[in-house]
Amino acid sequence: MSTTNVYAPRIAARMANIKVSSIYALLARVLDLQAKGIHVDSFTAGEPDFDTPPHVIEAAHRAMLAGDTHYTPVRGSLAMREAVREKFRRENGLSFEDDQVMVASGSKQIISHALSVTLEPGDEVLLAAPYWAAYPGMVYAAGGIPAIAMTRRENGYKLTPNELRSAIGPRTRWVMLNTPSNPTGAVYTEVELRELGAVLSEYPALLILSDEVYEKLSYTPERPVSLAKVCPELAGRILIANGLSKAFAMTGWRLGFGAGPSALITAMADLQAQTTLSPSSISQAAAVAALNGPSDAVKHMVNVYHKRRDLVMSLTANNPHVKVAKPDGAFYALLDVSQSLMRSARFRDSERPDVAFAGWLLEQHRVAVVPGSDFGANGTLRIAFATDELTIERGIGTLLESLSQL
Ligand SMILES: Cc1ncc(COP(=O)(O)O)c(C=O)c1O
Description:
Layout: H1 22-35, E1 41-42, H2 54-65, H3 78-92, E2 101-104, H4 107-118, E3 124-129, H5 135-141, E4 145-150, H6 161-167, E5 172-178, H7 190-200, E6 207-211, H8 227-230, E7 238-243, E8 256-259, H9 262-275, H10 281-292, H11 296-316, E9 323-324, E10 332-336, H12 338-343, H13 345-348, H14 353-365, E11 367-368, E12 370-371, E13 380-384, H15 389-404
């Protein structure tokens, strides 16, 4: 089809702030190089490099053959809602009534619904930077404005009570907490959550979004704990977003769930009814099998990520060109390369030195990393260690070598 004279519809003004992050341009270039048969050591994937466990796939197959191919209730099938409530009871020590849970097409949709049904124009959503790159766009799409609380590497990229208190303003409507974190792998301890909870209890009108999608991927003896469990006094205004994508290697199935106050869940479900209706019946059948079934596959994946995390730390230890806060969870490490970038005239003077460096690294050395400024962390690079050990050794070796030559 010719692209000339094609009618260009007027796009709503609110779309102006919804920027596609540089990740997508970088990913497109990686795919382009790979299609030409050029090898790239890529650390860009925000998803497991494992396939969905076979018993989960079999459950989906069985469900389809049994005719489970229709719409389900908007908030999710009864079996799935029960599996979600049982998961919270068993794994998090949290009891939710049926009207306090809902299922959606990914935890991202849960977050997006929550923002959409609560934000008035100009309301602020507080993000702890470095934050997941998608949050600001989701906030803008829902009519809000992202407000940033900057954390420090020295504190493991975790928000301190003082940083939280001083970032809350009169327009703050939501505080987003993501533990374990994308892009830093930071995991808040129970004590740290209690301290943040004490600050949050001073602001009774605030809503709190606890993004726990990486909950099962943790490398500490204690499992990550939910703010709702640590601070039951806040439970009436916490929304937990979680999903199947990361823990069960089910990103393509698009299934997530949320739990929180029933009035909020009802509004979110009403929005879902008018947008996507129910999530996929097939994915829900698979998710029931994942949540209720054996945990060996998840344990295996966590062990592999753990080994890779240790490998990343040993490769970067004592290297003068990068500083890394040890990730206790998820499958990301954020490398602070700001000092190396500042040494180089080539990158120092560009608008976003980390973006320029990531582009150069890909073109010159065929290593793909995500620039940290997409996560509100200029001068850093995110590597995802959801990739094999050979790639990790070779790619990080190349990266460190290139930094040493700046
Ligand atoms: C921090 C965080 N939250 C939520 C999501 C969304 O996951 P999904 O919608 O697949 O459940 C992601 C995906 O990368 C993420 O990194």
